[in-house]
Design a protein that fits this description.
There is one protein chain. The chain has 205 residues and is α/β, with parallel strands linked by helices. It has 2 domains: 116 residues, Periplasmic binding protein-like II (D-Maltodextrin-Binding Protein, domain 2); 83 residues, D-Maltodextrin-Binding Protein, domain 2 (3-Layer(aba) Sandwich), CATH 3.40.190. Helix content is 33%, strand content 31%. It is built from 9 helices and 11 strands. The chain has a 6-stranded mixed β-sheet. A 5-stranded mixed β-sheet has the order 8-7-9-6-10, covered by helices on one side. Helix 5 links the parallel strand 7 and strand 8. Helix 1 crosses helix 9. It starts with a strand and ends with a helix. The model has no long low-confidence stretch (mean pLDDT 95).
Length: 205
């Protein structure tokens, strides 16, 4: 049995057509059910649909053989116990520093609102910038407006949400897209099966 962990939301919407073209199809009845493990058109391939942040955890511990998650999630997780095999070129965006102006970044101790704690620490440590991180899970753009933080670190796609809230993207930390990862142990024990499906998916990118 091969188990594939998929992220809910935008990544799922863009992954399903890719998998279908590669030969793995999930019926609408399965997708609309409340089942946690979904059947596919292939008897020995199952799919689980979970939170994006849980995908690398499931793959790391062998609960899933293959996972598809954003590079931002993998960077935060650390990707221990995983091989990153493919950049799927979907759900593309940027992890960026944003603020009301560049002057906001000129602080002795920069207060940053973000849910990307590890990525933010690593980025500013390389610059030798002293920072204080305020962890938020949503409404990041509000933090500078109410004086909670000098800037934010968040994913930026079109930039329209930033603009609507009086912020501008200032520094690109890294480009983000969805990646296919595999469990290291599974890659050894199910090598032929995994390589077959990875090759099929790669041919559709």
């Amino acid at each position: 049995m091969l188990t594939i962990a998929l992220s809910k939301g935008r990544i799922l919407d863009q992954t399903l057509p890719l998998l279908k073209c590669a030969g793995i199809d999930i019926a609408k009845k399965e997708l609309n059910s409340r089942k946690l493990i979904l059947n596919t058109n292939i008897d020995d391939v199952k799919v689980i649909i979970i939170r994006a942040t849980d995908v690398p955890v499931f793959v790391q511990h062998g609960a899933a053989d293959i996972g598809i998650a954003g590079k931002d999630v993998l960077l935060e997780h650390g990707a221990a116990g995983l091989f990153e095999l493919l950049d799927l070129k979907i759900s593309q965006c940027k992890l960026m520093v944003a603020a009301e102006s560049k002057d906001n970044l000129k602080q002795q101790t920069l207060k940053i609102a973000t849910k990307y704690v590890n990525c933010t620490k690593q980025y500013f440590e390389k610059r030798g910038q002293q920072i204080e991180i305020i962890k938020l899970y949503g409404s990041m753009e509000l933090a500078p407006k109410v004086g909670l933080a000098h800037c934010i670190v968040d994913l930026v796609d079109t930039g329209n949400t930033l603009k609507a809230n009086g912020l501008m993207p200032l520094e690109n930390i890294t480009d983000i897209s969805s990646r296919l990862v595999v469990n290291i142990a599974s890659f050894r024990t199910k090598n032929a099966q995994i390589k077959k499906w990875v090759s099929n998916i790669e041919s559709q990118i």
